[in-house]
Amino acid sequence: MSATTSSDRAALGRAFAAARAEGRAALVPYVTAGHPTPADTAAVLRMLADEGADVIELGVPFSDPLADGPVIQRSSFRAIEQGVDLAWTLAALAEFRRERDTPVVLFTYLNPVLHHGLDRFLDEAAEAGANAVLLTDLPVGEDAELEARFEAAGMDLIRLVAPTTTPARVRVIARAARGFLYYVSRTGVTGASQALSAGLAREVAEVRAVTDVPVAVGFGISTAAQAAEVGRIADGVVVGSALVDRLERGGLEAARALMRELRGAVEGAAHA
């Protein structure tokens, strides 16, 4: 890809459509670039693709990850200590893209992108093979010029909806949504939880009713049973902290075992 070539923004739609055709939700694992060590990242990404990830969220380590809980914060700080930054993450993605075609969403914050240079970022992210970007601290409409530059570059911005988002605001976000809409299953930061919200099915149904793009649910999904529960009501299941914790505590094979559990769970869940 070159600066004038759009990212393959259709890849996310194809991934979700393929999962739906199989009667299941898409599995969307999150990992932090450079964690547990920079040398591990290539093998971790290959493992996710080979064990059934439909889409991968690749986190860019950041020094002030306010949306993330302690597990992902720790992984981010550990990666930074080992020299991992946005440029390194893009290089790792480019290496992965030479071997696998699983769609990848870069999960990051606005500060690293602006520090890198927006135009440079958009060019290099497309060149590396990113299919979309999730900027956790860029609300819809907050910076219309910046959003327009993403649109012009053909790089989708993944949008977030929370339980506290008003119905009117949900409709605004839904109109801007591209790729998929990320529904945050609870208030607060990322991290494992013992139980999902009692009103989650209703909340997801309300969001799905006002958008044509798939709705993926994340934050707090940590077990196969929870993945199956979410897989019955949403188009995608995002798992981050539990997977990052497995990588930190047990390495690649422990994370692989969790991926197999999660993939089996979404395959076994009857999808709405």
Describe the structure.
With 272 residues, the protein is α/β, with parallel strands linked by helices. The chain has a single domain (10-267), classed as Alpha-Beta Barrel (TIM Barrel), CATH 3.20.20.70. Helix content is 47%, strand content 14%. It has helices at 10-21, 41-50, 70-81, 86-97, 110-116, 118-128, 144-153, 167-176, 200-208, 224-231, 241-268, and strands at 26-32, 56-59, 104-108, 132-135, 156-157, 159-161, 181-184, 215-218, 236-239. The protein has a 9-stranded parallel sheet with strand order 5-4-3-2-1-9-8-7-6. Helix 7 links the parallel strand 4 and strand 5. Helix 2 (41-50) packs across helix 4 (86-97), helix 6 (118-128) runs parallel beside helix 7 and helix 10 crosses helix 11. The N and C termini lie far apart (37 Å).
Which structural traits does this protein have?
272 residues, alpha/beta, TIM Barrel, 9-stranded parallel β-sheet, 11 helices, globular, disordered N terminus
Structural class per helix/strand content? alpha/beta
- As a whole number of angstroms, the C-alpha radius of gyration is 17 Å
Estimate percent helicity.
40-55%
What characteristic shape results from the CA principal axes? globular
Query: How many domain modules?
Result: 1
Looking across the biggest beta sheet, what order are the strands in?
5-4-3-2-1-9-8-7-6
- What low-confidence regions span 5 or more consecutive residues with pLDDT below 50? 1-6, 187-193
Terminal CA distance reads: 37 Å
Give me the count of strands: 9
List the total number of helices.
Answer: 11
| Average pLDDT level | 91
Instruction: Write the CATH fold name.
Output: TIM Barrel
Work out the strand percent: 5-15%
CATH class: Alpha Beta
For the biggest sheet, the summary is: 9 strands, parallel
Overall CATH architecture: Alpha-Beta Barrel
